[in-house]
Amino acid sequence: MEKNNDAVSKIEELRAELNTLKDKKRKLDKKSKTKKAEKKEKKKAEVKNIVEKKKTKKAEKKEKKKAEVKNIVEKKKTKEEKKEEEKTLEEQLEEQLSDKEIENFKIEKVDMEKLTHRVCDILVERESSGMIQSELWKKLKLSSRDGSRLALKLERMGNITREKILEKGRWTYKLILKKTPISTTSIENAPCLICPVVQKCTLEGEISPQTCVWIEEWVTTGTSQLRRKL
Ligand code: SF4
């Protein structure tokens, strides 16, 4: 009987010990689970952090690139605006007018041939140093617009060259004479132009400028009887 009681008590002891062990295991399992979950959460947070950082970096890079492009566009725009502002009236006219419009430019009620000769007469005195165009327009009493168009025309005709210069902070042109136009004014009353015997007139012949009374009269007086006769 006593033996049986010992065995029962031993069993009870073992059971209690087993329960304690079970309890310990449960606690250990729980602890391990918690640790695992924490590790997982930590890993998740780390990954999230890396992704966020990457995202931020990408967004920052994009913003930087955007700002750079904007900056380039702004600079280009400013440069173009500045270039546009610095354009001279002549450059604007050259863009607006066709070659024909420049070459055929005329000022109302003005003899363009005479005006061209006046420009050349003034410029010939300045030789290679030329003259600032505004000074010339002032002398000729021309508006800047008419003067600028005349300068373009004379350049096209090969009479002048234009040198772009900065004068008192503004771009303008210096005009230099290149070639004086041939004038027909000096010979327009010459009798030879209407002479009925011009075909027979030679230097050594019977009819010759050396003995011609009409030419002599024209040279000395500027007129001729022949012209008055016809
Ligand atoms: S020089 Fe006298 S003749 Fe001879 S073409 Fe002239 S005007 Fe006539």
Would you write up a description of this structure?
This protein has 8 helices and 3 strands. The protein is mainly alpha-helical and 230 residues long. It has a domain at 89-177: Arc Repressor Mutant, subunit A (Orthogonal Bundle). The site of iron/sulfur cluster has 11 residues, from helix 7. Iron/sulfur cluster binds at residues 191-192, 195, 197-198, 201, 207, 209, 212, 214-215.
How do you describe this structure in short?
By secondary structure, this protein is mainly alpha-helical.
Our count of helices gives 8
The H-and-E topology, N to C, reads as HHHHEHHEEHH
Structural class: mainly alpha
What Rg do the Cα atoms give? Answer: 52 Å
Beta content comes to 5-15%
CATH topology-level fold name of the domain at 89-177 = Arc Repressor Mutant, subunit A
Mean of the pLDDT scores?
Answer: 89
Would you report the number of β strands?
3
Output the CATH class name of the domain at 89-177.
Answer: Mainly Alpha
Please give the order of strands in the largest beta sheet: 1-3-2
Uncertain parts: none
**Can you give the helix content as a percent range?**
55-70%
CATH architecture of the domain at 89-177: Orthogonal Bundle
Shape, please? rod-shaped
